[in-house]
Design goal:
The complex is a heterotrimer of chains A (about 260), B (about 150) and C (about 100).
Chain A (H helix, E strand, L loop, with lengths): L2 H25 L9 H12 L5 H9 L1 H21 L6 E3 L9 H23 L8 H12 L1 H5 L2 H7 L2 H24 L24 H29 E3 L20
Antiparallel strand pairs in A: 1-2
Helix pairs in contact in A: 2-3, 3-4, 4-9, 4-10, 5-6, 6-10, 9-10
Chain B lengths: L2 H22 L3 H25 L6 H21 L1 H5 L6 H22 L3 H27 L7
Helix pairs in contact in B: 1-2, 2-3, 2-5, 2-6, 3-6, 5-6
Chain C lengths: L1 H21 L3 H21 L3 H32 L15
Helix pairs in contact in C: 1-2, 2-3
Classes of the chains: A mainly alpha (about 260), B mainly alpha (about 150), C mainly alpha (about 100).
Chain lengths: ~260, ~150, ~100
C-alpha cells in the first residue's frame, strides 16, 4: 500500500470515527444536568448489594464479565512479552555488577518497601468501600518489590523474587476469578452473578458479596503479572547481552535467580 | 466558595504549571528535578481537593502518590545516573519550598480533620511525602551512588 | 470554584500532553510522561473519578518510567555495539 493510500485510509477512518463520536455526544444527557439514566441504575443496583463504591460494583458485579476480558488481555500481554523477551540462543547472561547505592537511598528503600506493600494490600482490600481495587493495589504492591532493585541491586531483587511462583500465581489468580464465576453458575444463577455470599453490612470490609473475592483475585493476578513483566524487561536491560557484547562475566549455571523459559 | 479547592487550584496552576515548564525546557538535570517537584506538589493538591470535596476516601490518591512519587524519581535517578553524574541537579530552594508546602498542607488538613484514624493516615502521608521527596531529590543530586561501598 | 479547578487541570493536561508529543528524545519524553501521569490523575480527581485517577497514579508514576528507561538502556547498549548506528554516539552506558 502506498503512503498516499494509507493516508487516505487513515483520513477516512478518522472522519468516520469523528462523525460517530459527534453523533453519540449529541445524544448524551446535558453536561451538569440532573438526568443520569445510566448512573442512577448503577447506583441503585450497587446499593441493593451493599456496595459502597459503585465503581467496584460496576466492575466486579454488574459488569464482572467485562473485567474477565480485561484480565485476559493483561494475561495475554504478559505472556506475549515473556515469549518475546526470553533469552535467545545467541544471547548469554552476564552477572551484573553490584551497585553501590548511598546509605540514605538504601535506608529509604528498605523503610518504604513494607509501607508500599501494605498500601497495595490496603487498596486491594478496600476496593468495595473506597476508590481503588485489585488493579490499583496490585500495581502498587508489585512496584514496591522493585524498590529492592532501586535501593540495592538486581541480585537483591532476584533473591526475593524467584519467578516461578509469580508465574504460577498469575495463572492461579486468573483461574480463581473463573472459578468464582463458575461457582455462581453451579449454585443455580448466571456466570459471575453476585449471589454466592451474603451481602454483609454496608460500608464495611465484609460487604458486597463476591466483590472482595474477585478484587483479591485481580489484585494477585495484576501483582504477579507486573512482577513477571518487569522481570522480562530487567533481565533484558541488566543481564542478557548479545554474543558480541562485552559482559562482565559469562554464564553462571549455578546462579539461583536463573531460570528456563519456554 | 470553597477555600480548600481555591488553594488546590492555586497550587496546581502555579506549582504544577512551573514544573511543567521545567520538565519541557532546559537541560536534563532541570527536567529531572522538575519531575520530582511535580509529585511533591501534586500530592498536597490532592489532599486539598479531598478536603474541599469533603470526601475522605480521596485521601487514598494522595497516599499512593506519596508512596510511589519518590519511587518514580528514584527510577530516574538510578537509570539516568550516568547522564546526571556530569551535571547533577541542585534544586535546593525549590525542593525545600515544596517540602514546606507539603508539610503546611498536611498540618492544615490535619487540624481540619481532628483526632482519629484519619489523622494518623494524614500524618503517615505527610512523613512519606516530605521524607520521600527529600531523599529523592538528594538521590538526583548525585547521592545515588556515592557513600559506603561494602 | 469547582469549575475553575477543572479548567486548570484541563489546561495542564493539554499542555503536558502536547509537550509529550513534541519532545523527541525518549529519555526526556519519559520525564514528561511521568508528569503527564500525575496531571491526568489530578484531572480525574477533579472530575470525581478517583478510581481512574488511582489507576493512573499506580501505573504512571513509577511503572511506566521504569519500563521505558529499561528499554532505552537495552536499545542504547545494542546500538553502542554498532557505533556507526545513529544512536551509537548518544548512549553512554555503564554497568547497572
Amino acid at each position: 500500500m502506498s503512503p498516499r493510500m494509507r493516508l487516505w485510509l487513515v483520513a477516512a477512518g478518522g472522519a468516520g470515527l469523528a462523525a460517530l463520536l459527534v453523533a453519540a455526544c449529541l445524544d448524551l444527557p446535558r453536561f451538569g444536568g440532573d438526568r443520569h439514566p445510566c448512573g442512577d441504575r448503577a447506583v441503585e443496583a450497587s446499593l441493593s448489594r451493599h456496595t459502597a463504591n459503585t465503581v467496584a460494583s460496576v466492575t466486579f458485579d454488574q459488569r464482572a464479565f467485562d473485567t474477565l476480558g480485561e484480565m485476559s488481555i493483561l494475561f495475554a500481554a504478559v505472556l506475549g512479552s515473556v515469549v518475546l523477551l526470553r533469552q535467545t540462543r545467541d544471547e548469554h547472561r552476564a552477572r551484573p555488577e553490584p551497585a553501590a547505592v548511598s546509605r540514605p537511598v538504601r535506608r529509604y528503600a528498605l523503610l518504604v518497601l513494607p509501607v508500599a506493600l501494605l498500601t497495595g494490600l490496603y487498596v486491594v482490600a478496600h476496593g468495595q468501600v473506597s476508590p481503588g481495587g485489585g488493579f490499583q493495589g496490585g500495581v502498587v504492591a508489585a512496584t514496591a518489590l522493585h524498590l529492592l532493585y532501586l535501593g540495592a541491586d538486581y541480585r537483591a531483587l532476584e533473591r526475593v523474587r524467584p519467578l516461578a511462583p509469580y508465574e504460577a500465581g498469575d495463572a492461579l489468580a486468573a483461574s480463581a476469578y473463573l472459578v468464582t464465576g463458575l461457582a455462581a453458575l453451579l449454585a443455580g444463577s448466571a456466570f459471575l452473578a453476585n449471589t454466592l455470599l451474603p451481602y454483609g453490612t454496608f460500608n464495611t470490609l465484609a460487604s458486597a458479596g463476591t466483590v472482595p473475592l474477585l478484587n483479591a483475585a485481580i489484585g494477585m493476578e495484576v501483582a504477579c503479572a507486573v512482577v513477571v513483566l518487569l522481570a522480562g524487561f530487567l533481565d533484558q536491560a541488566v543481564e542478557i547481552v548479545d554474543e558480541g557484547e562485552s559482559g562482565e562475566r559469562h554464564d553462571d549455571p549455578g546462579r539461583p535467580g536463573k531460570r528456563e523459559r519456554p | 466558595m470553597n477555600g480548600w479547592i481555591l488553594a488546590a487550584a492555586v497550587v496546581l496552576a502555579a506549582g504544577l504549571g512551573a514544573t511543567l515548564r521545567g520538565v519541557v525546557t532546559g537541560p536534563l538535570r532541570r527536567r529531572a528535578a522538575a519531575q520530582n517537584l511535580s509529585t511533591a506538589l501534586a500530592c498536597p493538591a490532592l489532599l486539598l481537593l479531598a478536603q474541599g470535596y469533603a470526601r475522605p476516601a480521596y485521601v487514598d490518591l494522595a497516599l499512593v502518590l506519596a508512596v510511589l512519587g519518590p519511587v518514580g524519581t528514584l527510577v530516574f535517578a538510578r537509570l539516568l545516573a550516568d547522564e546526571l553524574a556530569d551535571d547533577p541537579p541542585h534544586a535546593r530552594t525549590a525542593t525545600f519550598t515544596a517540602a514546606a508546602l507539603g508539610a503546611a498542607v498536611v498540618v492544615a488538613v490535619s487540624v481540619a480533620t481532628g483526632p482519629g484514624r484519619a489523622l494518623v493516615k494524614l500524618l503517615v502521608i505527610g512523613a512519606l511525602l516530605v521524607g520521600g521527596n527529600l531523599v529523592a531529590s538528594r538521590a538526583l543530586a548525585g547521592g545515588m551512588q556515592e557513600g559506603r561501598r561494602d | 470554584m469547582t469549575e475553575a479547578v477543572i479548567v486548570v487541570a484541563l489546561l495542564l493536561v493539554g499542555a503536558c500532553a502536547t509537550a509529550a508529543v513534541a519532545v523527541r528524545d525518549p529519555v526526556r519524553q519519559s520525564l514528561v510522561l511521568a508528569v503527564l501521569g500525575v496531571v491526568l490523575a489530578v484531572l480525574f480527581t477533579v472530575l470525581q473519578a478517583p478510581d481512574v485517577g488511582l489507576s493512573q497514579l499506580a501505573v504512571g508514576s513509577a511503572l511506566t518510567p521504569l519500563l521505558l528507561l529499561l528499554t532505552v538502556r537495552k536499545v542504547r547498549r545494542r546500538a553502542q555495539r554498532a557505533p556507526d548506528g545513529p544512536a551509537g554516539r548518544r548512549g553512554r552506558e555503564g554497568g547497572p
